[in-house]
Amino acid sequence: MPYLTAAVVLIGLLSALNLALTLALIRRLRGHGAAEPGHAGPPMALGPGSRVGDFTATTTEGEAVSRADLLGLVAFFSAGCAPCHELAPRFARLETGLPRLAVVSGDDPELVAVLSPAVRLVVEDHDGAVSSAFQNTWTPAVYLVDGGQRVVAAGGRLEDLPIESPA
């Protein structure tokens, strides 16, 4: 009987030690952002300070858009992208006072309907002019662009940008 009691106490102590080490590991991973996969961000070719490439495109309203008049927020969405469908309504409702341009690649009438009344919208192929100018290969992707057509910030979420009160 004393051996059984000692074994139960030993197993209890090992379990408590295992739990403490696991909690310490989780805390450390959260500190480095590894526990949240969305925290690392998408692979963005243009980072802060990068100049946007030259392009010309036409919005769904027939308005010409080019690098020369690019300023504010630019977001890339693609057909069949579930995170894009989550981000699009927030991007459309966003009230920052900054001009917004959305780029939808592929055929997705639902995304177009959500975005087109609220923002300038370009619908293009995956390797379209605007996507090529940003060297963008990931969606959703959001960029904050200054008046010099340089990227101020980029990421996969509105929270990655230094903007006020994302909707």
TrEMBL record:
Keywords: Isomerase, Membrane, Transmembrane, Transmembrane helix
Taxonomic lineage from the root: Bacteria, Bacillati, Actinomycetota, Actinomycetes, Streptosporangiales
GO MF term set: isomerase activity
Transmembrane segments: 6-26
The Thioredoxin domain, residue ranges: 46-167
UniProt cross-references to InterPro entries, sorted A to Z: Thioredoxin-like_sf, Thioredoxin_CS, Thioredoxin_domain
Gene3D superfamilies documented for this protein: Glutaredoxin (3.40.30.10)
PROSITE patterns: THIOREDOXIN_1 (PS00194), THIOREDOXIN_2 (PS51352)
Species whose genome carries this gene: Actinomadura coerulea
This protein's name: Thiol-disulfide isomerase/thioredoxin
